[in-house]
Amino acid sequence: MKFFVDTAEIDDIKELNALGIVDGVTTNPSLIAKSGRDILEVTKEICDIVDGPVSAEVVALKADDMIAEGRKLAKIAENIAIKVPLTWDGLKACKVLTGEGNMVNVTLCFSANQALLAAKVGATFISPFIGRLDDLNLDGMELIADIREIYDNYGYETEILAASIRSANHMSDCAKVGADVATAPPAVIRNMANHVLTDKGLDAFMKDAEKAGIKIV
Ligand code: G3P
């Protein structure tokens, strides 16, 4: 499974990218607003750091306006994936923008039917939001599994990009049900390294090393 990092914070992207675990980046208007940076400027900086797809989201609601914004975003760098919302206009924009050779990430997906439509219009990525479904006592992971089954039934090449990931367990669960990509905030990716038994075991090893006076360098 590919890991994308869901942030517009440059320091986090640099740190995770240097580890070689970042296959791409996703942003959205809320993350850009949080960064306090200009969208074109910060997105260009991210594209210069990361080789993989960098999703930049349109803010228009009408298809023609989304297409114009998407074309402008695509000029930032070759690795831009234009992000459009899963609305009827977003699907129209996806069809045109993918037809022009762009990567398109269709976002705000909350149902298998929406994912089916995104695949039909040639989306590069479909972004089902797990956490926001879980917030409503619905099963976000079940949606990922359903989309996997549907896409596999017909050989759709649209990649399932699991989004709205809130916990480390979401990451391994996404990998189990076959998401192609999971995008997570930096804190969630770092948290994947944590285990209470690792901390406990390390603490015991450190105490014993100190007692025995073990020195290596
Ligand atoms: O990738 C979409 C993500 O940023 C949304 O996450 O936690 O706001 O639902 P969240």
TrEMBL record:
User: Which region is the signal sequence?
Assistant: none
Q: What is the documented function of this protein?
A: Transaldolase is important for the balance of metabolites in the pentose-phosphate pathway.
- InterPro entries in UniProt: Aldolase_TIM, TAL/FSA, Transaldolase_3B, Transaldolase_3B/F6P_aldolase, Transaldolase_AS, TSA/FSA_arc/bac
Q: What is this protein called?
A: Probable transaldolase
Q: What is its main location?
A: cytoplasm
Gene from which this protein is expressed: tal
Source organism of the structure: Litoreibacter arenae DSM 19593
For biological process, the GO terms are: carbohydrate metabolic process; ketone catabolic process; pentose-phosphate shunt
Residue positions of the active site: 83
Name the pathway it acts in: Carbohydrate degradation; pentose phosphate pathway; D-glyceraldehyde 3-phosphate and beta-D-fructose 6-phosphate from D-ribose 5-phosphate and D-xylulose 5-phosphate (non-oxidative stage): step 2/3
* UniProt catalytic activity: D-sedoheptulose 7-phosphate + D-glyceraldehyde 3-phosphate = D-erythrose 4-phosphate + beta-D-fructose 6-phosphate
Q: Name one GO cellular component term.
A: cytoplasm
Keywords from the named record: Cytoplasm, Pentose shunt, Schiff base, Transferase
Q: Which GO terms describe its molecular function?
A: aldehyde-lyase activity; transaldolase activity
